[in-house]
């Protein structure tokens, strides 16, 4: 039966299991919007197309399913670029659909014409320009396959207005993808598995580097079994947090620039690194020349392009982590690393057990207090969506994540403005989850227009602004490396509580430590969105810190004991 390209688009999306899309209409995508009304699709009207892409991304990260964003041509499409790049750097499966000017007008500088496939070529896993209605179905099916298979990533489909308007035969089965040459299902060779097993058997100071691949391949349980059988401590990347429960005795905490000091020291002393679904980001390794100098390295990774990219490894096991571990586990006998585990225990010292909550109230409200109280009040069971900056690092340090997909954050691109819209996507994907936004006063103002979306769509997210009056992370760099010349980092902010009220959102302001718990409890008890403006110490810094490019063990530690924290 013949259908318009616009109808075929929605037919396919519904068949792909899509029930919600995030978008913003305009001329070149109007035929598709008109057809949408005939299909069981929830459309969330955003206030800026960047928000739509972050929402689709938050949706994808919260579930592992493909998130969908839709926009018009030209400015609508270019507004999506930041969100697409954010998804690309963190391997998040989203499909972005854009309208394009009529196929005959392409290349004429037509009204709202942008070559969006050209623009997004470097920040998509793949993209398509569709100019005929009959190509819509095969393209949508292929796009979903590419976005979600192997190493996931964003895919963009640009559909000309005439392709949406004209008609073609709709044949779902006939549109099944046949992607010659695309083989995302790598498997490691037996010889490499044996080599890895031999290295594991002979190691005395092994350490697992647990990355986001654990979450993406749902391999947490197998990694736990591996760690317990071989008594191997686990260091987490920012994006791996939650992949292994924070309260597991072998889980050491986060590595890297703002990781725990004992974790970085342990990596530098290790004789075997087991990199499980992580990509040796520069925030993780510090100076590559001095990184883990005494360690052999085994890399389990789905994307061959990541092997030997940053860190040269001794054995590469290319494939899905869960499948690789299923094959590797039987080859690995139980081992004990008692001396090594107790060496790391001594590196921790008493800093790990010192609890900021028990320190006397100095009259100052520190961001760490807020996060720590939020963790306790929510019993670590919330989905926390963070923005980028100091608050993001404090969240990683003080909110102990025990379940996969309970931390959603922009790691690779570090996109300010991500949190608020991504939280909308996460809440839509998991309506039963308690979703908290932890966002800086700077990043909040980048996408705060989505408060209107939250109200219009009745999205029950709780928003904690960590308001330090600064672009705090940049201020910290200026304090450490630019002699406190605070160029363009102080912020004059609106009254965030009043602002929320203007949108019709319940709000509170908190500036003392005693008020944190009651405010969080109040917000949790309220049905519907709540915004809390936490006015925190303005010039606090995140410790420890490995300066960019420095050796991983060369950490800057907190200079004075104003608040000794578990992270010191
Ligand atoms: C202000 C700021 C500070 C930061 N500080 C730190 C820090 O101190 N410590 C830190 O860790 N990070 C930090 N980050 C984050 C950092 O930039 C990286 O985003 C992060 O380290 C990447 O973690 P990852 O390698 O686990 O995840 P990703 O970048 O998502 O990489 C995951 C890897 O797993 C692979 N993979 C995917 N699926 C599978 C599968 N099924 N099987 C096997 N492999 C798979 C992918 O191909 C990819 O190579 C910071 C970011 C910001 C913005
Ligand atoms: C879109 C974007 N622009 C600039 C930056 C650089 N940057 C990283 S952290 C940061 C400061 C963030 O300030 P705020 O949102 O107030 O969070 P805080 O660090 O104070 O917790 C900036 C400007 C960025 N990461 N993203
Ligand atoms: Mg700030």
Write a concise keyword list for the protein shown above.
568 residues; alpha/beta; 6-stranded parallel β-sheet; 23 helices; 20 strands; 36% helix; globular; binds flavin-adenine dinucleotide; binds thiamine diphosphate; binds magnesium ion
Could you explain how this protein is built, in words?
The protein is of the alpha/beta class and 568 residues long. It is built from 23 helices and 20 strands. The chain has a six-stranded parallel sheet with strand order 3-2-4-5-7-6, with helices on both faces. Strand 2, helix 2 (30-36) and strand 3 form a beta-alpha-beta unit. Helix 1 runs parallel beside helix 7 (136-148), helix 3 (49-63) crosses helix 18 and helix 16 (367-377) packs across helix 17. The longest helix is centred in the N-terminal third of the chain and has 15 residues, at 49-63. Thiamine diphosphate is lined by residues 387-391, 414-417, 440-443, 466, 468, 470-474.
- As laid out across the biggest beta sheet, the strand order is 3-2-4-5-7-6
Indicate the proportion of strand residues: 15-25%
Rg of Cα set: 24 Å
- Which residue ranges are poorly predicted, with pLDDT under 50 across at least 5 consecutive positions? none
SS elements, strand count: 20
**Into which percent range does the helicity of residues fall?**
25-40%
Helix/sheet category: alpha/beta
* Spatial shape: globular
């Amino acid at each position: 039966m013949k259908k318009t390209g616009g109808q075929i688009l929605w037919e396919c999306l519904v068949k792909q299991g899509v029930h919600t899309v995030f978008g913003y209409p305009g001329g070149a995508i109007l035929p598709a919007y008109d057809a949408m009304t005939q299909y069981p699709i929830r459309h969330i009207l955003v206030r800026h197309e960047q928000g739509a892409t972050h929402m689709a991304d938050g949706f994808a990260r919260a579930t592992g399913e493909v998130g969908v964003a839709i926009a018009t041509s030209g400015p609508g499409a270019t507004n999506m670029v930041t969100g697409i790049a954010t998804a690309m750097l963190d391997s998040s499966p989203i499909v972005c659909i854009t309208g394009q000017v009529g196929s005959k007008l392409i290349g004429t500088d037509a009204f709202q014409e942008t070559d969006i496939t050209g623009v997004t070529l470097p920040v998509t896993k793949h993209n398509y320009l569709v100019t005929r209605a009959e190509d819509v179905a095969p393209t949508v099916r292929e796009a979903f396959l590419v976005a979600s298979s192997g190493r996931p990533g964003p895919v963009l489909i640009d559909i000309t207005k005439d392709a949406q308007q004209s008609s073609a035969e709709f044949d779902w089965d006939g549109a099944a993808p046949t992607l010659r040459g695309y083989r995302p299902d790598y498997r490691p060779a037996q010889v490499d598995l044996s080599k890895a097993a031999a290295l594991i058997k002979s190691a005395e100071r092994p350490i697992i580097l647990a990355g986001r691949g654990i979450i993406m391949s749902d391999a947490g349980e197998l990694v736990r079994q591996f760690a317990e059988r071989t008594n191997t401590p686990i260091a987490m990347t920012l994006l791996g947090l939650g992949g292994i429960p924070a309260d597991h005795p072998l889980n050491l905490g986060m590595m890297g620039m703002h990781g725990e000091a004992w974790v970085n020291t342990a990596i530098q002393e290790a004789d075997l690194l087991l990199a499980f679904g992580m990509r040796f980001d520069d925030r993780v390794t510090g100076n590559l020349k001095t990184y883990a100098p005494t360690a052999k390295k085994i890399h389990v990774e789905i994307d061959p392009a990541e092997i030997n990219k940053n860190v040269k490894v001794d054995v590469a096991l290319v494939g899905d982590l869960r499948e690789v571990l299923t094959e590797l586990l039987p080859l690995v006998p139980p081992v004990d690393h008692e001396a090594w585990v107790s060496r790391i225990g001594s590196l921790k010292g008493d800093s790990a057990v010192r609890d900021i909550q028990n320190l006397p109230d100095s009259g100052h409200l520190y961001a760490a207090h807020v996060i720590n109280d939020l963790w306790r009040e929510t019993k670590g069971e919330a989905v926390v969506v963070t923005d980028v900056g100091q608050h993001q690092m404090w969240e990683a340090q003080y909110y102990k994540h025990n379940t996969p997909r309970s931390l959603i954050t922009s790691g690779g691109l570090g996109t300010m403005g991500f949190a608020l819209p991504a939280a909308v996507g996460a809440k839509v994907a998991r309506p039963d989850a308690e979703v908290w936004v932890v966002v800086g006063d700077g990043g909040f103002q980048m996408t705060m227009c989505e408060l209107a979306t939250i109200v219009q769509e009745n999205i029950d997210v709780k928003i904690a602004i960590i308001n330090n009056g600064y672009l705090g992370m940049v201020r910290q760099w200026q304090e450490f490396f630019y002699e406190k010349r605070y160029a363009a980092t102080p912020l004059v902010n609106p009254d965030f509580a009043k602002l929320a009220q203007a949108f019709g959102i319940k709000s509170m302001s908190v500036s003392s430590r005693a008020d944190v718990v009651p405010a969080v409890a109040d917000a949790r008890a309220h049905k519907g969105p709540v915004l809390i403006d936490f006015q925190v110490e303005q010039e606090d810094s995140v410790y420890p810190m490995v300066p960019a490019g420095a050796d991983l063990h060369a950490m800057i530690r907190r200079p004075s004991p104003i608040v000794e924290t578990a992270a010191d």
